[in-house]
Automatic annotation (TrEMBL):
GO biological process: proteolysis
Protein name: Lipoprotein signal peptidase
Transmembrane portions of the chain: 68-86, 93-111, 131-155
Molecular function (Gene Ontology), one example: aspartic-type endopeptidase activity
InterPro entries reported in the protein's UniProt record: Peptidase_A8
Catalytic activity of the protein: Release of signal peptides from bacterial membrane prolipoproteins. Hydrolyzes -Xaa-Yaa-Zaa-|-(S,diacylglyceryl)Cys-, in which Xaa is hydrophobic (preferably Leu), and Yaa (Ala or Ser) and Zaa (Gly or Ala) have small, neutral side chains
Active site location: 121, 139
Superkingdom assignment: Bacteria
Family to which this protein belongs: Belongs to the peptidase A8 family.
EC number: 3.4.23.36
Keywords: Aspartyl protease, Cell membrane, Hydrolase, Lipoprotein, Membrane, Protease, Transmembrane, Transmembrane helix
Pathway participation: Protein modification; lipoprotein biosynthesis (signal peptide cleavage)
Protein's membrane topology: Multi-pass membrane protein
Amino acid sequence: MRYGVGAWPWYLLALVVIGLDQYSKGLASASLEYAQPVPVFSWFNLTLHHNTGAAFSFLSDAGGWQRYFFTGIAAVVSGLLVVWIYRLQRGQWLLALSLALVLGGAIGNVWDRLVLGYVVDFISVHYAGYYFPAFNLADSAITGGAIGMILDTFLGRPEGGTKED
């Protein structure tokens, strides 16, 4: 049996991710000075950055067309994720959870691109002078969702589960 209209809790989770992401970005934008790190731990700073590119600032200096390109890709992927979640078999909770996290993260970043023209990043992790590119809660949700999808692939279907469940 498919989730169908019973997929609403997963869509609600995606909305919660979007809400938390937008709230945290709003706090960061209101509280932090651009590119001025605020140390939290020896390996963790809050540092406001505006990313006009994709992951790791890929194509951030491409001249502006990338805003619409990445928005279009994310919009299409988000639409596909909505349908995928709807069509999932009941019992595929890990895959549904993972897809909901990716959906919420993708929409959170798309919202920034549409409204601001860039994605707000503010989480900075570093060690021994090496800095991981700044990111946000949406990026974290997307990463967690991707990890969940990989785990779901290895864990497989529940025992006795079939494609017709």
